[in-house]
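fyi for ur records
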Amino acid sequence: MEAILTLKNEIDFFKKVEISSTEFDSSVKWAFNSTSLSIFVESNNANDIIEYSFSGHVVHGEINPAFFKGIFFDNRQRNVIFLRRKSPGQSVVVRVEAWNC
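which gave:
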């Protein structure tokens, strides 16, 4: 299950989503208006690497569960993030949490 999660009116938010796409597209993006955002990969498989982009075109980073489970963004200027699998495989559960401080 992939979904667009719009967090613009949320103060505190928690959601789990399965990511299976290897493309950045609008089916796997979060729009948020909060000041802090955390993204965690719920997998121990080193092949379940999730890439993220703030533009939907350029890879800005990756979350590799072999090294670390998640990433935390604080006071981001951009309010959209796109997610995709780095390589094809089964769906990966990704947990997002957003809040205002």
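The chain has no helices and nine strands. thats all i got for now
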